[in-house]
Design goal:
about 450 residues, TIM Barrel, 2 domains, about 45% helix, elongated
């Protein structure tokens, strides 16, 4: 049977590492992405070990129109697939490792949409905070609870499926594959890799057998850790550093290091050209990923936890207006045309920005009002406000700021809005010992899956 040669624009790397795989990945992220763009690849995944540190820069590099020297980039953008090669705990309870054996098995997770991105963030966080044992680990219960929006693939020789196949435990491997398919459904893929290792060659027939028996599609991956083939020697040195070994030590771990590069479509075809479906499936996987949904939610507006508005109000804007009017009366400004005009302008600006830019200042101000009110009610010292926020009549009415009248001194509310700003920070000072209590209150009141840092 003749080999099918698949060009670069019909193959997607779904398993690759960069420098954020510490002491393991040698590829510089920007160079990795630009090489894929240069080749015309439609998409690529970055799946660093146990972390998502590359995610934001990856998205930016994938869509950048100018390089770091501000020169135009002539290559087309590439679809970024945010991923992570996580470690799967041997025990369901990640807090316990009774036998003191590491046994942490690899598993690749990819974000299909923003819900998947959020679940990936949550799994990464819990792996480090709750499941760390030699590596940041998750267990099957965590995966089952947070599988929405995720694509999963079986990873390398260190995965639970492939480790069982390498040890001729086909039944155990099939059981593991069945469990993962039950969790991820049609979004679970088997990976096949061949870097010249005897163990890989041994398990490839069984991977295809599992695919047929369990109706699980296969993708071909190359587990790239650097970009070009000639960089294999440098990767070998890096792995010696990882293992606290010496390049001249005959007992160190030996791999065919020159095969773990970012192979081109034709190079992958030399290995898998007799079964081209495993190459085409990588494109099918990439087509499931809605990178625009992720980008829109990350960069398209303010990301805020929900704020519970009392039932008698239609939404945050109406409740904010009510609080502002109450504040005007307390300050005695409700009879002042200048203050009424300034407040109406600020409330109107907030509504316009919400409609045009999707910046939800109403909810944002209510969150700030809530934690400042908590501080005040609990005798925690608060500052009078800083910078352009002090110019706001609205914030003064809410009790977030205090002191001299901003209208009297002609302070400009417009400076606070910062329409071109993607991040919004309203700084408030709290008593040195008590500020942690305010942070705790804000975090507890927010949705459990939102991270709030004050």
């Amino acid at each position: 049977m003749a080999k099918t040669i698949v060009p670069d624009n019909h193959f997607v790397h779904c398993h690759s590492h960069c420098e954020y795989s510490q002491f393991d990945g040698m590829a510089k992220l920007e160079e990795l992405v630009m090489e894929s763009r240069r080749r015309g690849s439609p998409a690529m995944a970055v799946t660093d070990h146990g972390n998502m540190s590359a995610a934001i820069k990856f998205i930016q590099y994938a869509n950048a129109t100018r390089d770091k020297d501000n020169e135009p980039i002539v290559y087309d953008p590439i679809k970024p697939i945010i991923g992570m090669e996580t470690y799967l705990s041997r025990k369901h309870d990640v807090h316990k490792q009774v036998d003191k054996k590491k046994g942490n098995r690899h598993l690749v997770l990819l974000a299909k949409n923003f819900a998947g991105y959020q679940n990936l963030c949550l799994l990464s966080q819990r792996a480090w905070l709750d499941g760390f044992y030699s590596n940041p680990r998750v267990d099957l219960h965590m995966l089952a609870d947070h599988s929405e929006g995720l694509i999963c693939s079986s990873a390398c020789l260190s995965s639970v499926i492939n480790a069982n196949l390498a040890a001729d435990r086909y039944g155990e491997a099939k059981k593991s594959a069945t469990i993962l398919k039950d969790i991820f459904g049609a979004d679970f893929f088997l990976e096949v890799q061949f870097h010249g290792l005897t163990e890989e060659k041994h398990i490839i027939p069984d991977i295809f057998k599992l695919s047929l028996e369990l109706d699980i599609p296969i993708i071909a991956t190359n587990d790239s850790h650097y970009i070009h083939k000639h960089q294999g020697t440098s990767q070998e040195v890096l792995m010696c550093m990882n293992q606290s070994s010496c390049i001249y030590n005959p007992k160190r771990v030996h791999f065919p290091y020159n095969e773990f590069h970012l192979k081109s479509g034709p190079e992958m075809s030399e290995i898998w050209g007799h079964t081209p479906s495993v190459l085409h499936n990588t494109v099918a996987l990439a087509e499931r990923v809605d990178d625009q949904d992720i980008a829109k939610n990350l960069f398209g507006g303010m990301r805020l936890p929900p704020f519970q508005v009392p039932d008698e109000y239609a939404g945050p804007q109406e409740f904010l207006e009510h609080l502002a009017q109450e504040g005007m009366k307390k300050l005695g400004w409700d009879k002042s045309p200048e203050h009424i005009k300034a407040l109406d302008k600020e409330l109107g600006d907030i509504n316009i920005v919400k409609e045009n830019n999707n910046y939800d200042f109403a909810t944002y101000f209510l969150i700030v009002w809530d934690y400042v009110k908590h501080a005040t009610e609990n005798n925690i010292l608060t500052g009078c406000g800083r910078g352009s926020a002090y110019a706001s009549v609205l914030l003064r009415c809410l009790g977030v700021t205090y002191g001299p009248d901003p209208i009297k001194y002609g302070l400009l509310w417009e400076r606070f809005l910062g329409f071109d700003t993607k991040r919004f920070i309203l700084e408030s000072d709290f008593g040195f010992e008590e500020d942690k209590d305010v942070v705790r209150i804000v975090t507890v009141d927010a949705d459990e899956e939102d991270e709030v840092i004050i």
